[in-house]
Amino acid sequence: MTNLIASEVHDLLVRLGVPAARFTGGTLAVRSPVTGEEIARVVESSADDARRTIGAAAEAFKAWRRVPAPRRGELVRLLGEELRASKAALGRLVTLEVGKVVSEGLGEVQEMIDICDFAVGLSRQLYGLTIQSERPDHRLTEQWHPAGVVGVISAFNFPVAVWSWNAALAFVCGDPVVWKPSEKTPLTALAVQALFDRAVSRFGDDAPAGLGTLLIGGREIGELLVDDPRVPVVSATGSTRMGRVVGERVARRFGKSILELGGNNASIVTPSADLELTLRAVAFGAMGTAGQRCTTLRRLIVHESVYDALVPRLTQVYQRISVGSPIDSDALVGPLIDGASFEAMQATLRDATAHGGIVHGGGRVDVNGPGSFYARPALVEMPAQTGPVRQETFAPILYVLKYTDLEDAIALQNDVPQGLSSSIFGNDLREIEQFLSGSGSDCGIANVNMGPSGAEIGGAFGGEKETGGGRESGSDAWRAYMRRQTNAINYGRTLPLAQGVTFDIG
User: Fold this and answer.
1) What percent of the chain is predicted at pLDDT more than 70?
2) Which residues are catalytic?
3) Are strands 358-361 and 378-381 parallel, antiparallel or unpaired?
4) How far apart are the C-alpha atoms of 227 and 245, rounded to whole Å?
5) Catalytic residues per the record (predicted)?
6) How many angstroms separate the CA atoms of 45 and 469, rounded?
7) What are the structural domain ranges in the chain?
8) Is the pLDDT of residue 1 over 70?
9) Which DSSP state fits 480?
10) Which of 207, 250, 284, 329 keeps 20 to 30 A from 372, CA to CA?
11) Mean pLDDT of all residues in 4-25
């Protein structure tokens, strides 16, 4: 099977426009989690390559910022067309490189298409404010200007969608983009770069060289991007540990960072919840993408009155959920990205047991031999929110806890360092509104009668606390890619000063 996967990957890359020299004979070995074996060898960027690329992007900024925003939107529209035409191929490549089931690979590309549509409309709506002035014959306005080069550092679990959330907005805002993808998933990045280059060639001479570029490599390449003062905005997706380093280093040079970091997401199941709906939502939220989403459901806080009606049924779902290869079965749960992820999962389950947890599932499933790492999702009944429950483990582990009062459940949900996503299941309007209020969920995302994952691009995506505070995608997230300018205009013939100050020079 492995030779077939490598052959298919090569065919897909060539079909998507990637020169074979980019993914053969290089120093970076790429392995498919479907089988665990090598499928390509990618050419890595050197430090000098990175510096030249950033320099080219800085030069591109001088030209791109002068292109009218609706015209910039035309480039993103063309990118959306290229993605539509190549959705099947790119989605398949996501499945082969990351191990996502087929519908999730295609769904990720659909996210890219959706954000392009959003950004095209946005290119005519980069609006400021008109503010009333206290001085006669004056007016105040706010306007937004392009910020400059945007560095994007993305993680393996959404290898192409996260780039698009940033890039589509950055391009219409007037910013070039330099992308450093995860070294675990460079192939999908090469494919997206080829599609972007195709859109640029259709767009014409208004797009300067260096507008959208790619750096392949490890941490040292990312550090060059983070530390370069020619990159005023750095958007980084990954672990809290990584984000803390990126945030500090960017702040040291007074740059701006957009951080999308860890999530330890919880759902509260109230006495009035529709348990059939809850069961389906919890299953997808906790087991989708093999638990490798930042919005994966990791803690289920269940009211004591419905615990015995829900949890045994949920345990049965965990026992029978299909685990298998995403390319030759209809399994709902695919592989973990690599052996390190599987070992982290097993260590966490041992820790949960030491803290009094009762573990259901979690063992390895032999699908494609010793090189791949498939695991049965684990449901862990915990006596309290202690030990590993307070941490994010990027694997399909769901901790289940009981509660008595909603205030206690909300306090339990909020009592972790992360603050990305959350949800509540119920039909009691008072409880739902309490959860959504300022004294309710402290997360950036709070859903009702659905799980914490599956965000749409129309709303800003991101979280609080150790999740980093960044916002990407929809709503007014575009402002992070621009700089604000306040203008005071005197259209009179006198010079009244603000706050009643006088300065008479005779």
Assistant:
1) 100
2) 260
3) antiparallel
4) 11
5) 260
6) 30
7) 49-261+468-485, 265-457
8) no
9) G
10) 284
11) 97
